[in-house]
Amino acid sequence: MLITNLEIVPNIRIIKHIGLVQGSSVRSKHVGRDIMAGLKNIFGGELQGYTELLHESRKEATERLVKQAESIGANAVLNVRYSTSSIAAGAAEIFVYGTAVQVEPINDSTLPSAE
Amino acid sequence: MTQFVIFIVFLGCGFIFGQMAEKKHYKSIIEREQQTNHLPVIASKFPPESGSYHQQLIAGSVVVASDYFKSFTAGLINIFGGHVTPYESLLDRGRREAILRMKHEAQQINADYVFNIKLETTRIATGRLGAIEVLAYGTALIPHQNASEQQDAQQNALQA
């Protein structure tokens, strides 16, 4: 599955446009982490717990996007965009969307292997 | 009285540790920026026509928190208006760190360029907590030669 945020991919021809696919994930950390984050707010610095949390949910959202794209027979998702919003204290929603298409290589050696 | 003392202690802690953390962070950012300078990050949608590349979406993100002193001074500036410099440096640090993490990922997969970089900033906490998340993402272009070399190396490792 090719996932890219470009619209044009060299050496690849789009043969079928399938439509918009999306994936989202809402996650939160346990209270302990929130309290630690509150303490960190006095001293400043990186909130590693939250960085990790958002990284995990981004991965999950992308997995869901890929799953949806696969289920409708796409082999590439182009023009992928991420968006994050905080929906409550300590919880964030990650949303990822893109255009699912079917592509074929112009000369067969250049198609990224389906991993 | 106790509340006032706590307030002063928080303010002092925020000032001392916050400034220390910021200086340290800037030092490491500048150092790593020089190390990764050779990898171009381009905000263009159009990849080079020549050469055959393998594409991969990469991202880097960071959550940075403001300190008590920053929040307090920002509150004061808010009364009179003007540049909220404490937050400006916080956002600058966050963005540069996110781009550096993205570049680090690009280096690990032997990318030549990173195209169509997008930056996104969100305030992730509500209430008194002032923290922002910065996400940088883009498409890494990996030359095919490298990819096949990697495959060869993997096959060799399997055979050994």
How would you explain this protein's 3D organization?
The complex is a heterodimer of chains A (115) and B (160). Chain A is of the alpha+beta class and 115 residues long. In chain A, 32% of the residues lie in helices and 43% in strands. Chain A is built from 2 helices and 5 strands. Chain A has helices spanning 31-43, 48-71, and strands at residues 2-3, 12-28, 45-46, 76-88, 91-105. Chain A has a 4-stranded mixed beta sheet. The longest helix of chain A is centred in the middle third of the chain and has 24 residues, at 48-71. The model of chain A has no long low-confidence stretch (mean pLDDT 84). Chain B has 160 residues and is of the alpha+beta class. In chain B, α1 crosses α2. The longest helix of chain B has 34 residues, at 2-35. The mean pLDDT of chain B is 85. Chains A and B meet through β1, α1, β3, α2 and β4 of A and α1, β2, α2, β3 and β4 of B.
Could you say which overall geometry of chain A the principal axes of the C-alpha atoms support?
Answer: elongated
End-to-end separation of chain A in angstroms reads 6 Å
Oligomer: heterodimer
CATH homologous superfamily title of chain A: Hypothetical protein apc22750. Chain B
CATH C-level class of chain A is Alpha Beta
Number of helices of chain B: 4
**What is the CATH fold-level name of chain A?**
Translation Initiation Factor IF3
Principal-axis shape of chain B: elongated
Strand content of chain A: 35-45%
User: Which band does the percent of strand residues of chain B land in?
Assistant: 15-25%
The profile of the biggest β sheet of chain A is: 4 strands, mixed
Look at the helices and sheets of chain B and give the structural class.
alpha+beta
Major sheet strand order of chain A:
1-4-5-2
Tell how many strands the DSSP assignment of chain A holds: 5
Estimate the helix proportion of chain A, in percent.
25-40%
> Which sequence of SSEs, written as H and E, runs from N to C of chain B?
HEEHHEEH
Given the helix and strand composition of chain A, which structural class is it? alpha+beta
Number of continuous helical runs of chain A: 2
Q: Can you tell me the CATH architecture of chain A?
A: 2-Layer Sandwich
Q: How would you characterize the largest beta sheet of chain B?
A: 4 strands, mixed
